């Protein structure tokens, strides 16, 4: 059933129930009032009959029931009495609508009177098949000789109320019809306010919204104009390391200084980096949600710096890989043609020597990596870089004292591969216009420090550039460049290390990372020599 019909049915049912309850209460109150009035009238009539002289004088006379019954027979026609009993002290009827019951004993529960009757009283009950009775004692010369019972059945009362009941029913019908009309208008307005959607469709949309928010890689928070959180996804809780939920105060977030009304008075967008205690760096972007005339709240997007860095590296690697594949394809074709020619000339020894010549450097590098570097990700990176640089006639060597058994405590494989990859790529760019092209990599560790040294035979770097080279988009290679060293600086800062730049004669980059703990004061510093 559609929502509109459900609302109409519910409201109509409530209105009908309310009208019925109202009618029942009104009818009960009205019927009770009429019954009580009839009962009082019956009691008054019983008092008048009990005071009749013929009745009082014959209550003690022999065969007095004959005179008493004759005395009251005419009263049925003069009053609205439906039945009249006169009962003696010994419990016999002296007057009864049925002649055969005259001078017979009263049966149990034949009348509603209970207890000894010493003064006039009455009885009535809220039941259609019940009756109303009035009672009055008969006193002859001051002595109680019997009592009078005057009764009217409720059916006659209902007959007198027939017209009023019809009007009450018409009132109820009009009230129900008005209620149905109001229910229709209410349901239509509600349907319009929810854009004609059914509850199941709304529930599906909300469920889809929650699923989408929870599967977005970024943390998403939204607040209303009162500073209450109205949207929180799981990634936001995980990135912040906090248990927050919808309804919490926006001021509970750690960067509350960027969330005040004064801060957002003239701002629409603000982005900053936020470092958590566990050396995790977040990129926080805050948007002001403004309507034409009022502020609706804030939208906060939180990203893990490592994910942002990873995306940038993947884009860079894809571009480099494409270029490398093009170069390698050309170079491999030349080598295959040379080998093919030697085989056709039946110069088999020459072919073997040629193959050994072009594979020897890679084999030597593979042996060196296997012996000196026990971290597979780092070794794999160096082997790949060696193959790529060899095709470009750039010599990549590993320092003979290099040895790596494990990484620093807080470092991950992707941290070291990102540092090395960006430094080697930076050196490769610097060697483009040089004939003597070489890059040397050294990795050294002891119990306290982990050192990375990358040097090249390039032109080096002037002092002014050393001061700015770690800033994003600052590069000597042109527009849309300069991200590599900025990424390196960010990783080193997170790991609590230091960077030292020098010229000898080409650029020498030396990075020092703590093996087990953060270097005090070293997370945001680089040193130039």
From TrEMBL:
PROSITE patterns linked: HIS_KIN (PS50109), PAS (PS50112)
Output the Pfam families linked to this UniProt entry: HATPase_c, PAS_8, sCache_3_2, SPOB_a
In terms of InterPro entries, this protein maps to: HATPase_C_sf, HATPase_dom, His_kinase_dom, PAS, PAS-like_dom_sf, sCache_3, Sensor-like_sf, SPOB_a
The membrane topology term of the UniProt record is: Multi-pass membrane protein
- Name the major location: membrane
Gene3D superfamilies referenced in this protein's UniProt entry, alphabetically: 1.10.287.130, Histidine kinase-like ATPase, C-terminal domain (3.30.565.10), PAS domain (3.30.450.20)
Name under which the protein is recorded: Spo0B domain-containing protein
In its UniProt entry, the species of origin is given as Fusibacter bizertensis
